[in-house]
Write a structure and sequence with these properties.
By secondary structure, this protein is of the alpha+beta class. About 20% of the residues lie in helices and about 40% in strands. The strands form 2 sheets. Strands 2-3-1-6 form a 4-stranded antiparallel β-sheet. A two-stranded antiparallel sheet has the order 4-5. Strand 2 and strand 3 form a beta hairpin. The two termini are about 15 Å apart. The structure holds ligand 2BA. Ligand 2BA binds next to strand 5.
Length: about 110
């Protein structure tokens, strides 16, 4: 890895999609670290994958994310959401996007391996 060309791809995905994505990344020779995380809105477990790659590899990583992480919708009882109080106890479930992935691509100022 060359300093200055490095990007950090941060991928937040559902646990099941993240397992498949990790497998695909490793099979293709991309380094990846999976961290257990929790979504602030649904308060469900999800996974955050960190992958430090060369700038010209980012598009390949994103193609794998698109192939493995599919968005769908789900209805969630409002009582499970953080900002609805007891006053909304009889309200209709809320449609939310689940699955899919959220991706950030950040410049890496410096990389060291000790
Ligand atoms: P959660 O915060 O648990 O959000 C799960 C899904 O709930 C979101 O899917 C979105 O469809 C919906 N949602 C979130 N906040 C909402 C709100 N205020 N009102 C209505 N619906 C809302 P995604 O957007 O695909 O996000 C999936 C997970 O990715 C999030 O889980 C969170 O852990 C992370 N995430 C998304 N955007 C982020 C960001 N800008 N910064 C950091 N983490 C982010």
């Amino acid at each position: 890895m060359q300093n200055g060309q490095l990007k950090l791809v941060i991928i937040i995905a559902s646990d099941s999609d993240a397992d498949r994505l990790m497998k695909a990344l490793i099979e293709q020779g991309y380094p990846a670290t999976k961290i257990s995380s929790t979504g602030g809105f649904l308060r469900r477990g999800n996974a955050t994958i960190l992958s430090g790659v060369e700038a010209d590899e980012v598009d390949s990583v994103l193609a794998m994310v698109r192939a493995e992480c599919h968005a769908r919708t789900e209805y969630v009882p409002v009582q499970m959401l953080p900002f609805f109080g007891e006053a909304t106890a009889v309200a209709e479930p809320v449609e939310v996007r689940v699955g899919g992935a959220i991706v950030f691509v950040a410049d890496v100022e410096r990389f060291e391996k000790t």
